[in-house]
């Protein structure tokens, strides 16, 4: 007959069976975790840029485009229409003040100037002749006045004699009245002569002044012609580098045509453009950072063009070090106009992820092997940093590379 299995044996068998199930369950869980790790999205750590959140200062700025140009540049134009006869210098030459650059055909202009000199001498002689004629005419008028004054004296004496004779009874009242009428007539005639003389003086002075003004205008025109001739001998106005010259021998150029450009290639400035929506942030005296390659230079806005063209305004930046070796004429530059400064703020390195203030989802490094998405809010920025408003703490490590293809992942594994 069958014997009953002892309770101790039954207990051991039950424990063995339970341990077997637990082992199987643990194995299944381990496999599940292993499979989950295999299936988790992963990214190579070396392909990522990871930035730590720190606390510091942000110079808030707006971005503009710029170009390096010489701090000084002068365009030389031809003052007359002429033919180019000879070229004395070439582009790239360093020229001193007064160095001849071009020789123009000035024969026609010099002939005109010579004729103008002759006309000037004629005008001078005409002025001398007019002055002499005026003096003669006025002198004659003065002589007439003196003669009339002498006649008036004689008539006054005659009246006095007639009055004396009448008082003695030797004269008549009629002769006295006749002498009085003659005297009054002479006085009126003298007064008329004096008035005519004053009128002639004013008229002759006006004629003389008008002729002098005509001569002065002509003299100024002649001086301008002489200056134009001097300028037509195309010379460098100062020591600089010749960056352009019209070297087409025998060509005819018109007055006002650009024939040369000289530039100071030892000192530079920046000509920049920015969207006119930022016009309220750009003003003379504002601070600017200029980035050329990996070099960052500092400057100040010197002038701002008030008019908008094609949706942009233009401004000029005077560099703190205009002779910096990185500055080369024609180089493109990134220009950052500093609009304000924020101290003691959380900040994150700037990168391609940032497109303006607002809400973002960036990946936070949770541990050495895991990235998790984090909703954050970012504020203003400059070239280096972005202001962190919420969602991150000082010391957090955040991926600032492009992570768009992982945006739906709940976790990302860091490999290697």
Q: Could you explain the architecture of this structure?
A:
By secondary structure, the protein is an alpha+beta fold. A hairpin with a 2-residue loop joins strand 12 (287-292) and strand 13 (295-304). The protein has a 6-stranded antiparallel β-barrel. It has a 4-stranded antiparallel beta sheet with strand order 4-10-8-6, with no helix packed on it. It has a 3-stranded antiparallel beta sheet with strand order 7-5-9, with no helix packed on it. It has 3 helices and 20 strands. The protein has helices at 7-39, 107-168, 173-232, and strands at 42-44, 50-52, 54-70, 73-77, 82-87, 94-95, 102-104, 240-245, 252-253, 258-263, 268-275, 287-292, 295-304, 312-319, 332-349, 358-367, 370-381, 385-390, 397-399, 412-415.
């Amino acid at each position: 007959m069958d014997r009953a299995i002892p309770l101790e044996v039954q207990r051991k068998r039950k424990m063995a069976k339970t341990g077997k199930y637990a082992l199987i369950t643990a194995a299944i869980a381990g496999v599940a975790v292993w499979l989950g790790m295999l299936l988790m999205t992963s990214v190579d750590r070396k392909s990522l840029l990871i930035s730590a959140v720190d606390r510091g200062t942000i110079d808030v700025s707006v971005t503009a485009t710029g170009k390096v140009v010489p701090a000084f540049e002068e365009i030389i134009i031809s003052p007359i229409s002429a033919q180019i006869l000879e070229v004395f210098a070439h582009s790239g030459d360093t020229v001193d003040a007064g160095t001849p650059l071009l020789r123009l055909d000035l024969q026609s202009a010099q002939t005109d100037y010579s004729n103008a000199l002759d006309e000037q001498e004629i005008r001078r002689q005409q002025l001398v002749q007019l002055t002499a004629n005026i003096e003669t005419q006025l002198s004659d008028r003065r002589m007439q006045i003196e003669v009339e004054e002498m006649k008036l004296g004689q008539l006054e004496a005659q009246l006095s004699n007639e009055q004396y004779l009448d008082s003695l009874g030797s004269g008549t009242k009629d002769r006295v009245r006749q002498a009085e009428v003659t005297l009054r007539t002479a006085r009126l005639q003298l007064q008329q002569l004096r008035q005519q003389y004053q009128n002639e003086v004013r008229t002759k002075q006006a004629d003389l002044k008008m002729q002098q003004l005509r001569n002065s205008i002509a003299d100024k025109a002649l001086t301008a012609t002489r200056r134009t001739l001097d300028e037509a001998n195309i010379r460098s106005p100062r020591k600089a580098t010749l960056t352009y010259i019209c070297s087409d021998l025998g060509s005819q150029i018109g007055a006002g045509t650009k024939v040369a450009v000289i530039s100071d290639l030892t000192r530079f400035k920046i000509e920049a453009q920015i969207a006119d929506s930022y016009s309220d942030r750009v003003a003379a005296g504002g601070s600017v950072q200029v980035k050329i390659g990996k070099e960052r230079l500092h400057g100040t806005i010197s002038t701002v063009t008030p008019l908008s063209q094609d949706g942009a305004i233009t401004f000029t930046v005077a560099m703190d070090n205009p002779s910096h070796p990185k500055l080369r004429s024609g180089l493109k530059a990134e220009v950052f106009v500093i609009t304000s400064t924020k101290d003691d703020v959380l900040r994150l390195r700037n990168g391609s992820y940032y497109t303006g203030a607002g809400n973002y989802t960036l990946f936070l490094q949770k541990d050495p092997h895991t990235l998790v998405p984090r909703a954050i809010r970012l504020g203003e920025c400059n070239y280096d940093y972005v202001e962190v408003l919420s969602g991150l703490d000082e010391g957090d490590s955040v991926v600032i590379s492009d992570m768009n293809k992982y945006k739906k992942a709940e976790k990302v594994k860091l490999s290697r």
